[in-house]
Amino acid sequence: MDVVIDPASDVPPFEQLRTRLAADITSGTLAAGTRLPTVRTLAAELALATNTVARAYRELEADGFIETRGRHGSFVSAQGDAAGRQAQEAATAYAERVRHLGVDPAVALRYVERALGL
After folding, report:
1. What is the DSSP string of 22-56?
2. What pLDDT score does 71 carry?
3. Per the confidence metrics, is the pTM higher than 0.70?
4. In degrees, to the nearest 5, what angle opens at C-alpha 29 toward C-alphas 26 and 35?
């Protein structure tokens, strides 16, 4: 695994690792079903504390990017594009909310476009 952690960065090491792994999973560089290194192994490779890698793995699991199978290890989730799935869930929740508020759909879309900077 080709991950580089910049110790001089303002971004915490766990977040650098989480972001890199999430990007590799989303791009397909790390395919569904790929077994990830153990927390201890990756921590040693990256010269990080085991708690740092464990936190990155926990957050990736909470976001649906990876799954932990007990003593068998952590694997890239086979559930598809976690970021896309979460974006769809957020869009659905937003649509339900604006309907409940009685906001015109065209106005609701303009709000989203402005929020995205389009």
Report:
1. HHHHHHTSS-TTPBPPPHHHHHHHHT--HHHHHHH
2. 87
3. no
4. 95
